Amino acid sequence: MCSHRADMSIQLVVAGEGGGPLLVDFTGAFTPRALTPGRVARLVRHALRQGWRPELPGPPIRLERQAAQLPARPFPVKEHPDTPGRDLAWAVDLDPLHRAFPWPHRREVFSAFRLDGACTPADLGTLLGSLIAYRSGEDPPLDLQRLDWDRLAARNLSVSAGVCLYVGGERRMAVGCCASLNAGREWRDLPETGQAPWNGHDPFSTATLDREAGLVHFHDPAHAGDARPAVDSVALPVYRALIRQLEADLHAFLEAWAAFLRPLARDRTELFLSRFTADNRLG
Question: What's the pTM value of the predicted model, to 2 decimals?
Answer without folding.
Answer: 0.73
